[in-house]
TrEMBL record:
SMART domains from the UniProt entry: HTH_LACI (SM00354)
InterPro entries, per the entry: HTH_LacI, LacI/GalR-like_sensor, Lambda_DNA-bd_dom_sf, Peripla_BP_I
Feature: compositional bias, Basic and acidic residues: 337-347
Keywords, in A-Z order: DNA-binding, Transcription, Transcription regulation
Annotated Gene3D superfamilies: 3.40.50.2300, lambda repressor-like DNA-binding domains (1.10.260.40)
A molecular function (GO) term: transcription cis-regulatory region binding
Domain HTH lacI-type, residue spans: 4-58
Entry keyword Metal-binding: no
Region (Disordered): 319-347
Pfam families membership: LacI, Peripla_BP_3
Name listed for the protein in its UniProt record: LacI family transcriptional regulator
The keyword Kinase is annotated on this UniProt entry: no
């Protein structure tokens, strides 16, 4: 059976060869119905574009790269799936780089992959701003959760969700709370810390901040001693993984959630599967990945318009890990002094 060609796809779909080419390389220039018709015809015929030929004729590789700090973190794995699905819909393959939370490795990945991709989606970058701008001057870059003027960006605004969580805790009688954050170089963690601090002050709550370091289950579990020492009755964690670690550390000490302590997470990826189910701020991770890919590919198709930015609002989802503040322990009772004997009874 002969290998299907672009000419055969065009004839079967009733369109020009240029339209077939655009359906794979620049689908945003066509109507969704035309793109669906062309791609459906190509799939039925078994047609696959020649990426080498396309790269030679268009100067495009048909690939983009997604650079993540930690692919094992549920937030970034969900973001990755959203980005890959959107890239596939638009005819692009996705390279993946895991920077292991290090700025140096981000720098290396951006440099080494540049020759093989048409642009980058850089999620929660740890790099300093000048280095990000240096790479963006060489290849198109869209950043997620880093607000850099002049660079395409998708910002997940979880501040309102954390504000709502503080209001919830205040209404439940909590007077001392903690924010457990990622390294302070993290834009999203800084944003969440500011929201908790401001909302706490507005509602008369005492707020302490504890740095968990690299967000992980172990980091959450290890910070429990500090939470208890600080005398707080609730913790808001930078993500669900850290929140789950906090719940595990409390359980190891015989404390119940939410009876003895309330916990709030963020991302809402694993929150419904914890025990108890975790109150969490839904960060719409997959949508953030898809929007970033759209920004990048739209910019490749038409680089002249002003740089765009998308803001996604996070919302609080209340579940079973938050409850009324525990009643304060009764003050220890002093020993009653012995009664003086009745003088009249003395012999």
């Amino acid at each position: 059976m002969p290998v299907p060609t672009i000419r055969l796809v065009a004839r079967e779909a009733g369109v020009s060869q240029a339209t077939v080419s655009r359906a794979f390389s620049q689908p945003e220039l066509l109507t969704p119905a035309t793109v669906e018709k062309v791609l459906g015809t190509a799939q039925r015929l078994g047609y696959v574009p020649n990426q080498v030929a396309r790269a030679l004729s268009t100067g495009r590789a048909g690939n983009i790269a997604l650079i993540l700090p930690d692919v094992a973190n549920p937030f970034f794995s969900a973001l990755m799936r959203g980005a890959q699905a959107q890239a596939y819909k638009r005819g692009y393959a996705t390279f993946l780089g895991d920077s292991d939370e290090t700025a140096h490795l981000e720098d290396v990945l951006l440099a080494k992959l540049a020759a093989q991709v048409d642009g980058f989606v850089l999620a929660s970058p740890r790099l300093d701003e000048p280095l990000i701008r240096k790479h963006a001057a060489r290849k198109p870059v869209v950043v997620i959760n880093r607000d850099l003027e002049g660079i395409g960006r998708v910002l997940v605004d979880t501040g309102p969700g954390f504000t709502a969580a503080v209001v919830l805790l205040a209404g439940l009688g909590h007077r001392a709370i903690a924010y457990v954050g990622a390294p302070r170089t993290s834009w999203s963690s800084q944003q969440r810390a500011r929201a908790v601090t401001a909302a706490g002050a507005a509602h008369g709550l005492s707020v302490v901040q504890i740095d968990a370091g690299r967000p992980s289950h172990e980091a959450g579990r290890d910070c429990v001693a500090g939470l208890l020492e600080a005398g707080v009755t609730a913790a808001l964690a930078v993500d669900d993984v850290v929140a789950q670690g906090i719940m595990a550390g409390l359980a190891e000490r015989g404390l119940s959630v939410p009876g003895d302590f309330s916990v709030v997470g963020c991302d809402d990826i694993i929150a419904a599967t914890t025990y108890p189910p975790l109150t969490s701020v839904n960060a719409h991770c997959a949508l953030a990945g898809a929007n970033a890919v759209d920004l990048l590919l739209n910019g490749l198709a038409n680089p002249t318009p002003p740089v765009e930015g998308h803001v996604i609002k996070g919302e609080l989802v209340i579940r079973g890990s938050t409850g009324p503040a525990p009643a304060p322990a009764p003050a220890p009772r002093g020993r009653k002094a012995p009664a003086e004997p009745d003088p009249s009874s003395r012999k």
